[in-house]
Amino acid sequence: MKNIKYLIVLLILFIINIPNALAATFLNSTNNNPVVGSSFDIKFNLEYGHDARVAEGHYKITYDSSCFEYVSVYHSQKGGEVRTEPGVIYLDKNYSTEVTWGDGAPVSFTFKPIKVCSSSRFNIEATADAKYVNGTIIDQTVVPTAISSVKGDSDTQLSNLYIINYDILPVFSKTNTSYHLTVNGDVSEVEVVAVQGNNKQTIKGAGKHTLAYGDNRLKIEVTSENGMTNTYEIMVTRKDNRLKNTSLRSLSVSNTDIKIEKDKYEYSAIVSRSVSSVFIAATPEVDNSTLTGTGTKQLEIGLNTFTLTVIGDDGASQTYTIYITRSTEELQKEVESTNLLNLEVNNLTVPLDKKNTTYLIGIPKGGEKLNIVTVTESKTASVTVDGNEGLKPGINIITITVTEKNDTKKEYKLIAYREPDNSSRLSSIDQINNAEMHDTPMYASTNEIHVIHPSTINSIKEMNNTVVYDVVNTNGGLLYQVKLNPSMEAKDTNITFTKQNDSPLTYQTEIPAGLEVKMYINAEQYKNGTSIRIYTYNEKGKYNVLSEGTVVENGYVTFITNGDKNYIFTTQQLVTQKSLLSKIADKIGNIVIIFIGAIAALFVISSLINHKLNSKMKDEPLY
Prior knowledge:
Blueprint: H1 2-22, E1 24-29, E2 40-47, E3 54-62, E4 68-75, E5 81-85, E6 88-93, E7 104-113, E8 117-132, E9 141-143, E10 145-149, E11 160-163, E12 178-183, E13 189-195, E14 202-204, E15 207-210, E16 214-223, E17 229-238, E18 248-253, E19 266-271, E20 277-284, E21 290-292, E22 295-298, E23 302-311, E24 317-326, E25 340-345, E26 348-349, E27 358-362, E28 372-376, E29 382-386, E30 394-403, E31 409-418, E32 424-426, E33 442-446, E34 451-452, H2 454-463, E35 467-472, E36 478-484, E37 493-494, E38 497-502, E39 505-509, E40 516-520, E41 531-537, E42 543-551, E43 556-560, E44 566-570, H3 580-619
């Protein structure tokens, strides 16, 4: 009997301690690999046994706040107060036998990943004893969880888009988001099919759409896994057959092959990026009809939509829609040509002119090679680049040769300017006022009209140094260079050269005398080694010979200013400059002429005097 009582006591103790054996507190996640920008839940779980009720519990959950942002808390069971700090959540359930927790997740916390983190731990610890409703302390284990946030797919491009039984225009390309379609008036519904680029995308706007007469804008929105969106658009035009037919006799759009086709009310074409406008011309079939929408149209990059409306004398109307897509690139043609369509140097576009093959560009200081990208007008032409290696300070000549399949060639030249490596660079000429002393020339550049202020000139005088002032174009090419020296007068000095004429090449300026200027005068017109004359004239119209033997080097000439307002560059002789002997001979000749004139005058006067004397003697008597 005594043994039976002992077994009963042991059984009771075992039953009481079953919950303690099963007591586990742990965290788990609704998504162990959440995408950055999305949301997920961390669940606070209890596993104490089906019938166990928890009256009290105190916990601290920690996480990396640089990886995850706390959003909100949700209670699926009553009880428990929540306090938050960056990276810390305090969960406290004070003792209560009426409000208790059972198995499951009484509390869940919502988080948002803010960057990619691998195996970032959400830790949990008990900050005080947990108790059952009978007051027994729970011998619990706590288990953390780890989360690895991922970047997520950002692809928002469809793999295909179409309307069943119809062909949208232009042909689908995943990078193009604008399309159009015209259907007959008896078509009241179309069905759009959008095919995912990947299975993590969500799509809105596909399926059946009811059409009204006229234009119907159908939008298909694609959302990537990481929340980025992209919208495709199909403009579906339903013909209004309720109106009397009006038509065009002719239709043309410049820079395209568009022409009128019977019963066709929608036209499309693609033009090169360089085509910034088109001219739409059309005539109605019936002379007394009214036509609107023709003329010059400016083009934006991408899809441009233009409408022509023909209104008959009875009020009936018909709309013609023209879609012009201006490409982001220059479109090559099926022609034989040695022309370049596009030229980029160091990611800057050089504005090409078919009449010009020489262009001025700049080289970054210390640069020994330029990144040159070319697009030829012809698909069959090839390009070679010479002189783009080991670029030196000063003027460099880079030759781009376009060769067609028939061996015809065309050369483009880049006159590339690079500053000396040992020069001191000023971001602006005005910085000279704060510059430190330098033994080497200082360089400043501008592509605007500029006036040198007296304070800047005084700084040059104090430093007793030369400032090389480069006037450049938008691509950094050297137009002209002025060396500002300490001998300048301290006053507002405009160093701008303004072109006044091309033939002869004439510039106007207010630049003072005594400054060295290096000027580009056109390497195509004046070949290397050409000897030119430089003339100047002032506001009084007096011409001066500045130089009669200046040699052109890579399109540039160098001269010293004389203070005149106008400078003429030419190979022709505009002013005759006499030698010293000629000037002496001219002076002697003038003296001789004056002497002969004086003798002639004396002879005339003497003759007149003699004539009067003779006349008087005749009037007197002989005795």
